[in-house]
Amino acid sequence: MTVIVNTTDNKDITKILEKNLFGRSLEYEIFEASDMHISHCRGCNFCWLKTPGVCAIKDDYEKILKELPRASQLWVISDTALGFLNHKGKNIFDRIVPFLTMNLEFRDKMMRHVMRYDNRLDIGIIYQGGIDKDYMIRWNKKITDNMKSKPLGVFDVGEILEATKCMQ
Q1: Higher pLDDT, 145 or 165
Q2: How far apart are CA 158 and CA 113, in angstroms?
Q3: Is the overall model pTM greater than 0.70, yes or no?
Q4: Would you place residue 4 in the very low, low, confident or very high pLDDT band (cuts 50, 70, 90)?
Q5: Four-way CATH pick for 2-167: 3.30.1360.10, 3.30.420.40, 3.40.50.360, 3.40.462.10
Q6: CB of 141 closer than 8 Å to CB of 151
């Protein structure tokens, strides 16, 4: 299954993705996060220590977090700020912590988190606005390396729209 989280106000991008890519017999769930109340991570570590796998913050992110153990892909669509994902897009990644355990292991000569679930969650980023794309590609790889998964790529909304035109 694929989880798509759109943190932008541009709902056209999810409609285009749904019609041209995910409407082809793939199981997917789209979350329009701009319409959701999602708090920032407080770093309280409840999801690791007190309530393993369950975030202490009770907000709309719970709906997303419940789908991630079933998913094999996560796509985050975000606006940008200062050459990076804006606060809404970054927040989706920060709140993924319950998906991990606090335990660490050596992988690829680095300390990495032990995953809470057996499935691999490959991650892709779609952005609109100015961004340091090379940095975002490296950042996405670091996140996926820590999560024992692989990056799906970093794409500008314009690239996605152009690719879907070719499919029609």
Answers
A1: 145
A2: 34
A3: yes
A4: very high
A5: 3.40.50.360
A6: yes
Alpha-carbon distance 142 to 21, whole Å?
26
At CA 154, angle to CA 148 and CA 156, rounded to 5?
Answer: 160
CB atoms within 10 A of CB 20: 17
> How far apart (Å, rounded) are the C-alpha atoms in residues 118 and 23?
26
Element (H, E) at 80: strand 73-81
Domain ranges of the chain: 2-167
The pLDDT score that the predictor gives to residue 18 is 76
Q: Minimal CA–CA distance to 8: which of 27, 39, 40, 31?
A: 31
Show the CA angle centred on residue 85, arms to residues 161 and 107, nearest 5°: 105
Nearest residue to 128 (alpha-carbon basis) of 97, 89, 168, 95: 89
CA separation, residue 139 to residues 56, 69, 146 (Å): 27, 22, 11
